[in-house]
Write a structure and sequence with these properties.
Blueprint: H1 3-10, H2 14-21, H3 25-33, H4 40-49, H5 65-75, E1 81-84, E2 87-90, E3 104-111, E4 121-130, E5 133-141, H6 150-156, H7 160-164, H8 169-180, E6 185-187, H9 190-205, E7 213-215, H10 216-223, H11 232-238, H12 249-271, H13 274-281, E8 312-316, H14 324-333, E9 337-339, E10 348-351, H15 356-360, H16 365-375, E11 381-384, H17 385-392
Parallel strand pairs: 3-6, 6-7, 8-9, 8-10, 10-11
Antiparallel strand pairs: 1-2, 3-4, 4-5
Length: 394
């Protein structure tokens, strides 16, 4: 169960929970934001204050705040949230679409940190696009009821004073739901924004956000396959797009719309049609079975400082940011070693984002072999596609 859910159950503010655990509010806030790793003694105090099972921590040396959450999940209801590689993700939601639409609602969120299960939305921006033309916009700050970390203020320019005069999340989400209706959503690195929005819909409206969505990061990988980083600022620089207020929700949304429009033209010119482009994302792109031996590395990209350098990786499930062939190619290009199946020397099993909740529950195939290797003491790790992408950017 998320710390916020436990706080709500006990009707505790962040300050009150920190006091109950005997910790300073600043230290507790840092733990929730993931900026600091709590000591084992603090973990036990937090667990006891939240009335989770203290014995869950007795035989475990927990190193990171995400592992704290993992232990909480193991002993409490999870409210529709699952864990992959120690990070939380929301079950349900709409489909991640392959065909690039011209009518959609672009969206961006600004938040107090990286993890939706620990942090809060402080701003939502959205723009309706009909047949490629911007028509309406939505923008609101959100009062979160506590002080921002100075890093967030420096990054976004959003201050405590600005939030104090803003409406609460409940009002903003109700208005946002009306604005988006059942339209297709679009975001850059969509899993980040969608998880925060999924969580907000469940908390405020008591129902899931079911809208289908497009991830422009996946489009960028097809449009610019040789680009090292495809963050929004990188794409804006590449395509000469001005983002007037970086890290403000509406400005980032407008920049995403402009980037997507150009990238859509690039991929359609390359693949000939929406259908051909979508087909390239839904399979390996060839009629024969994909084999690791068929992947030829481009050695000019090898980077020994990346954590995946020299690592043996196996891929399973449906990937949303790229197809499996591209993932194996990217891995080989930076000096990693793609494998067809899980072996004793496999370092990582990477599970695709689409349908990963069900995939984790399977008792056969690659996941089963990886779990058996873990029980044997072999150092294989089961990670998500998102974790794999983050490691590529190390």
């Amino acid at each position: 169960m998320r710390i916020r859910k436990l706080r709500d159950r006990h009707h505790l503010t962040q300050k009150e929970l920190a006091e109950k655990a005997g910790l300073s509010e600043s230290a507790f806030r840092s733990y929730e934001l993931g900026n600091r790793h709590p000591r084992d003694s603090h973990i036990k105090l937090i667990a006891q204050a939240l009335e989770v099972h203290p014995e869950a921590f007795a035989d475990c040396r927990i190193r990171t705040s995400q592992e704290v959450i993992h232990m909480l999940f193991n002993h409490e209801e999870n409210y529709g949230i699952v864990l992959i590689d120690g990070k939380a993700a929301v079950e349900g939601g709409g489909d991640n679409l392959y065909k690039p639409p011209q009518t959609y609602i672009a969206v961006d969120t600004e938040t107090t940190g990286l993890y939706f299960d620990l942090c809060d939305i402080i701003e939502i921006g959205a723009i309706k696009v009909v047949d490629g033309e911007k028509t309406e916009s939505f923008n609101s700050l959100i009062d979160i009821g506590y002080q921002l970390d100075p890093f967030i203020t420096e990054l976004t320019g959003i201050t405590d004073e600005m939030l104090q005069s803003a409406p609460p999340l409940s009002e903003v989400i109700e208005s946002f739901e009306v604005f988006i209706g059942d339209g297709i959503l679009l975001a850059h690195n969509a899993s980040f924004d969608m998880n925060f929005l999924y969580d907000a819909f469940e908390r405020v409206l008591g129902k899931p956000l079911r809208n289908d969505y497009i991830d422009t990061l996946r489009v960028a990988r097809r449009a610019f396959p040789d680009m090292q980083h495809r963050r929004l600022p990188d794409l804006c620089e590449c395509m000469n797009i001005l983002n007037e207020k970086e890290h403000r929700a509406l400005s980032d949304t407008a920049a995403t719309v402009d980037c997507y429009a150009q990238m859509r033209e690039i991929v359609l010119a390359a693949y000939g049609s929406e259908e051909a482009y979508a087909k390239s994302l839904s399979g390996s792109g060839s009629g024969k079975a994909l084999r690791a031996k068929d992947i030829v590395a481009s050695y000019d990209e090898i980077n020994e400082s990346i954590s995946l350098y020299g690592m043996r990786c196996v891929f399973t499930g449906t990937m949303t940011s790229m197809v499996r062939r591209d993932a194996m190619q990217v891995l080989a290009n930076i000096g990693g070693i793609p494998q067809d199946g899980v072996r004793k020397d496999t370092d990582y099993l990477v599970i695709g984002n689409e349908g990963f909740q069900d995939a984790l529950k399977t008792t056969s195939g690659k996941i089963d072999r990886a779990k058996k290797n873990q029980l044997k003491g072999l150092p294989i790790q089961i990670i998500s596609e998102n974790a794999f992408l983050a490691m590529l950017d190390d």
